[in-house]
Design a protein that fits this description.
The chain has helices at about 5-20, 25-30, 30-35, 45-65, 65-70, 75-90, 100-110, 115-125, 130-155, 160-180, 200-205, 205-240, 245-270, 275-295, 300-315, 320-330, 335-365, 375-385. The protein is mainly α.
Length: about 375
């Protein structure tokens, strides 16, 4: 890796971390948000679903107009990050209500469609070889961005809402400047043309693209539902065992552990393969889902270790599956392919999150989390297919 590539990777990675910090900002302060604006504290599933829905609409727009392949990716990233910061800051508007917050989350989700998949596109424009390792760093910083609101909430002590929203907004603005002004067009970038519907058919007619995509879809069924409901899982453990684990602190630790597994997975992919890393991750994550009901009977330390292991393997396959998708797509439509696959994957997260939220509220039990096993099972099935 040349010095220029290292510099570009650092800028992409740091910008991705900064700009994705707004994604789960509401999840970290839902209690304070509910108190401030007199809304139901059980709205976390709905607000998470809304931002995912916004992301899906955004990726559809980006894919339909082939924006990622027709325009300079770093400028798209910069403008989306700026608008994302503005919509995030809007959460502090004193006259907010349930639906205005939902609208702001929806807008943020649309903006994130120009950040996360575009970040992957930018990385693939710079790294033809070693893309798995580069995306390991990139997705690892998405994990950091997802976890950091919980850390901000933990250290804020008081005024969590203002502290978390202001800091995540500032990070998004910082990331927009870094990538917009510091990352030029990559050497492996190729300008595409207007979107044509038959492109999607052509993409999925490729066996390698189809297997990588469906492996990614299985992974996504589990990932964001697990992240969104980690505070609930810890709360459930506290209630059953009469303990008082700090929910924000341990949510941060469990989520952020995935940063290290993504980076390690990137190096392991160079030694073995991206598919090997993805399959190992899916297998371990599946075991964690099935063992979760038993883990609630563990003492504190084994339970925390178990949750950290789950946090490690629930995300370590993501950069490698994205690598497989990028490598199996035609260069001319690489950005559109990544964006479209992200769109379908995040659509599945809405379904799994809402199923989980509904059954938890109706049954008040942890058993619905076993439904998450569908994702890793299907992911492993498609990655292991011979034809």
């Amino acid at each position: 890796m040349s010095l220029q590539q290292k510099k570009i990777l650092f800028l992409i990675v740091f910008a991705q971390f900064s700009c994705t910090s707004v994604w789960f900002a509401v999840n970290a302060v839902i209690t304070e948000l509910a108190t401030t604006f007199s809304i139901n504290p059980n709205s976390v599933g709905f607000f998470t679903g809304i931002i995912q829905f916004g992301f899906i609409i955004g990726t559809l727009i980006f894919a339909f107009f082939s924006i990622a392949d027709r325009f300079k990716a770093s400028k798209i990233f910069m403008f989306c990050a700026i608008f994302s910061a503005i919509s995030n800051l809007g959460l502090l508007y004193p006259e907010n209500n349930y639906w205005s917050i939902a609208t702001l989350r929806f807008i943020t989700g649309i903006c994130l469609a120009g950040i996360y998949p575009i970040g992957i596109k930018i990385a693939s424009d710079y790294f033809e070889n070693g893309l798995g390792r580069a995306l390991g760093f990139l997705v690892g910083t998405l994990v950091l961005g997802t976890a950091i609101p919980h850390f901000f909430s933990f250290i804020a002590l008081k005024n969590n809402l203002q502290f978390v929203i202001l800091f995540t907004t500032a990070l998004s603005l910082l990331g927009s400047v870094l990538i917009g002004l510091g990352v030029p067009k990559g050497p492996y970038s190729k300008q595409g043309s207007h979107f044509q519907p038959q492109i999607i058919t052509q993409l999925f007619s490729s066996k390698s693209f189809r297997k990588a995509s469906f492996g990614y879809f299985g992974h996504m069924w589990e990932l964001y539902t697990f992240w969104a409901f980690i505070p609930l899982l810890i709360t459930t453990y506290n209630q059953i065992n009469h303990t008082s684990l700090n929910i924000n602190l341990y949510s941060f630790i469990i989520i952020v552990s995935g940063f290290f597994s993504c980076i390690l997975g990137g190096y392991l992919a160079q030694l073995f393969s991206s598919k090997w890393v993805a399959k190992i991750s899916l297998k371990v994550s599946l075991c964690c889902i099935l063992l979760f009901p038993i883990s609630l009977q563990f003492s504190i330390l084994p339970f925390i270790i178990f949750m950290i292991v789950w946090g490690l393997f629930v995300i370590s396959d993501s950069p490698q599956l994205s690598t497989l998708v990028a490598q199996s797509a035609p260069i001319k439509y690489k950005g559109t392919a990544i964006t479209f696959v992200n769109c379908i994957g995040f659509s599945l997260t809405i379904i799994s999150i809402q199923i989980m939220n509904y059954f938890h509220l109706q049954l008040n039990t942890f058993f619905p989390f076993l439904i998450l096993s569908i994702g890793p099972i299907l992911g492993l099935y498609f990655l292991s297919k011979k034809s």
